[in-house]
Structures are given as structure tokens and as C-alpha cells.
Amino acid sequence: MAPPQNVQRVDHVAFVYRRENHQQAIDQFTKAFGITDWDGPTEIPLFGMVIAQSVKSGIEVLAPLDNDGDTMFSEHLRAKGEGFFALVFGVANLHASAERAEKEGIKFDKDEKGDFLLLDNMISVNGEAAHATWPAKLNRYDEYGLKPLNGERFYLSQIEFKDC
Questions:
Q1: Beta-carbon neighbour count of residue 122 at 10 Å?
Q2: DSSP-based three-state secondary structure for 113
Q3: Computed over its alpha carbons, how large is the radius of gyration of the chain?
Q4: Contact 12, 86 (CB under 8 A)
């Protein structure tokens, strides 16, 4: 049976570490919480990052491919150091939820046409899922990024599991 879709609650929390500390962070989360279902680590050059995630436990561990680069991950490390990166909030309908929040004055990352910038993690790497294991367990993994809210990074997500 598939885990329930996280709706109107925290879906997962993302942490960012320097590249050389990435695996150690994964190992610490594994020891502390008994997580054994990590997807990754996977390098995603398009976004300049390496990612490991346990979608069931709700923990995502990121690192920039280049600590000194100009990605949001390396910039975050310079500004805030290692640790918390973003909170991802699950919704039933991503677009409708973003439109509702925008009407309330919440700002979102937008593409060049002014539309919500969709992060479709099922086709983010050369037209394939961010992790090779995801097509077998997920139907959908979409996110919209909010502009910083209360000094922190947040995303809305619509992540749907397959019935397993």
C-alpha cells in the first residue's frame, strides 16, 4: 500500500551540506532515524547539486557540486552555513494552491513568461526522474518555490505515490 499523499502538512525538510560532508550527513540521519530507503545520492548537473532523499521519511539531503559556485545551494552555505535549507509543504492541487497564496500576497519563483516555475522532479535529469528509483514508486513529484518567507526558503509540493 502506498503512503498517503501529504496534504496541508509538511511533506519533507531539505538540508544542505558542503559536498565533502554530504555522505556523512546522510550517514548521521541513517543512524539517528533508522532510514534505509535513501534514493541517491544522485548528481544533477543541471541544478549544480547532488541529492539524496528518503521520500517516506521526509528528509532530503543536498550539496552543491561546487561549494564555491553560484548555485542557490553554495550561496546558502556561504550565507547561513550547513543545515536547514527548505521546508516543503504538501498540497492536493499545486497550481490552485499557488494561485490562492499569490492572491494573499505570497511571491513565487517565476519562469521567463511569468508563470510559476515548475520543478518537475520526475523529468528533471535529461528527461528522466531525479532518481532512477522514483518512476517505480511515484506518479508525480512537482514543486513551486516561494520567494523567501520569514527569512527562510519554502516550497509547495504535490507528490503522489503509486500503489505498491
A1: 19
A2: coil
A3: 15
A4: no
Please tell me the pTM assigned to this model: 0.94
Please state the length of the chain.
164
Q: Is the peptide bond before 41 cis (omega within 30 degrees of 0)?
A: yes
Give yes or no for residue 96 having a pLDDT over 70.
Answer: yes
What pLDDT, in 10s, does the model give residues 40-49?
Answer: 999 988 889 9
For residues 151 and 143, the answer to whether their CB atoms sit within 8 Å is no
DSSP 24-80: HHHHHHHHHH-----EEEEEEGGGTEEEEEETTTTEEEEEESSTTSSSHHHHHHHHH
By the 8 A CB rule, do 133 and 65 touch?
Answer: no
